[in-house]
Amino acid sequence: LPEGHTIRRLANLQNKFLAGRVVTASSPQGRFTGGAAAIDGHVLRTTEAVGKHLFQHYRGGPTVHIHLGLFGKLTSGTGEPPEPTGAVRLRLVAGHAWMDLRGATTCELIDPPEIAVLLARLGPDPLRGDADPLRAWKRISRSKTAIGALLMDQKVVAGVGNVYRAELLFRHRVDPFLPGARLREETWMSMWADLVTLMRAGVRTGRIETVLAEDRPRARGALKRDEAGYVYRRQGLPCRVCGTEIRTEVMVARNLFWCPHCQAPGNAG
Ligand SMILES: [Zn+2]
């Protein structure tokens, strides 16, 4: 499931290759024929990312709302677009670039009032400069729900997924089962600042790398895939900080990973 940094990268890619140009839109699969017809021949003004949502705004035309969900995929390229294979819901061709959308949970036309309703239901997105961490704090500080579950709730923070959840909690030594109401405000504010830094780095590199220099197995060289994180998918392996076995358990339908020593019960950061 793509996290916010991936969605932002997709938006950046569309802005680089498709925006400012007249698009030819089609729905080879046929499930978005009407929508494709509505944007066909319009100029893509910009693609905006909010959390895990994408909004393609067309000049003088409608907006297309895309949410990839678990199985959605956006592929793109330059040059002649390939023969559409599989279920291509939406194909855009503009200038020398093309984009195919397959299997998304949502691909729909959306109007400004509907966008406003949708955005009002989303928490602040750490990748947006205007995001207010106190909006998230309001929900967290009033909740008995575990912080590990709250972080996955898009109403609390938009764009955070399973990897950032696990790594962020570890970096701040927070017990994932701690009720939101027991987290300290200063801990949350430093978690937020960290999330902004980590997610911005994710946009730059396309990877989630959370291990601090002092905790790296080797001081130099690029991190290997299995060296990038503290706890994510490291169940059964020794904690990089204390050596305790990393544990895993399902929380909000996704595997949570944590160190039971560094993030001991009740540890509020
Ligand atoms: Zn540990």
Summarize this entry quickly.
This protein is α+β, with helices and mostly antiparallel strands. The protein is built from 7 helices and 10 strands. Strand 9 (247-251) and strand 10 (254-258) form a beta hairpin.
Keywords:
alpha+beta; four-stranded antiparallel beta sheet; 269 residues
Fold and architecture overview:
This protein is of the alpha+beta class and 269 residues long. The chain contains seven helices and ten strands. The chain has helices at 4-17, 33-39, 112-120, 133-141, 147-150, 162-171, 185-205, and strands at residues 24-26, 44-50, 53-58, 63-67, 73-78, 88-94, 97-102, 106-110, 247-251, 254-258. A four-stranded antiparallel β-sheet has the order 1-6-7-5. Strands 2-3-4-8 form a four-stranded antiparallel β-sheet, with helices on both faces. Helix 1 packs across helix 7 (185-205) and helix 6 packs across helix 7 (185-205). It is globular. The relative contact order is 0.13. The model has no long low-confidence stretch (mean pLDDT 95). Bound molecules: zinc ion (ZN). Zinc ion binds next to loops. Residues 239, 241-242, 244, 259, 261-262 line the site of zinc ion.
